[in-house]
Amino acid sequence: MRKNILVIGGTRYFGKLLVQRLLNAGHQVTIATRGHTPDPFGARIARIKVDRRNEHAMRAAFAASAGYDIVYDQMCYSPVDAAIAVKVFAGKVKRYIVASTIDVYRELLGQQVAPFAESDINMLAQPIDTRYPWHDPTLATESYVAGKLQAEAYLYRDGSLPLVTVRIGHVLAGAEDFTGRLAHYVDLVRQRAPLRYANAAAASSFMSAQGTSNFLLWAGAQEFVGPVNAACEGGLSAFDLVQRIGMLLEVPVRALPAKPDVAAGELSPFDYPAPYLMNTARAAQLGYRFGHSDDWLDHLILQHDLAFV
């Protein structure tokens, strides 16, 4: 059935792939962005130019809208963003899907050995600080984890949206990956520089950009609500990742344990002091099976290697 769908974001990374998949499935798609990044969709989509973080602008942009079957919110980074979503879309959407993150489990890191399940976080008990300067660009990196956690907490506590929060594993992509995280490790190996790591066995969960867009498309066609983890099988630690890159590029790898006084997260993007995996049993129970990182990781590594040539 053809649906009227809004994607907030949708011009890069897995958001752009999601829009393409929605179009391929025959849906009517609108994207809402600031208009700074061009998209390749031409006349196949409608566009709303708006600042997602400006409540007045959002209210004005969607005041005349009759609503949507699905809203995919790729840009909900704080409880302030969540509050805007409630004020603009409550009662106007049948399904509200937020792209959340594995990082909502960050505060639980090291507290359990088992992969994190959705129920391991009591969202209704999370503190919410709407007075913090969430939209200050100089604080964007340091406030990311708390912002995503509190965004979910606000939405679930409010309860007025038919909400799904997709907690996505660390997303990796090819040369178009603006985060530079996989490129960091490829470059490290190419330069014969040593990797310093906190825990060689501290594997984390990953997703490809393509796999992420596929799951979001599928989630939009379902009826469940609530949080759901999205991650491929085959978690890797930073140590595992550079070993794999070294074997693939046929380059010797140097890896050294970190000094005890080095704080977690200071070494490299995916270095953790303890396992950081997600349990995907809920997605499986709902009927979705994720693939394995072996299906796509080597291809992405080679893309980054070629980018350095």
UniProtKB/TrEMBL annotation:
Residues 5-82 form the NAD-dependent epimerase/dehydratase domain. InterPro entries: Epimerase_deHydtase, NAD(P)-bd_dom_sf. This is NAD(P)H-binding protein. It comes from Massilia rubra.
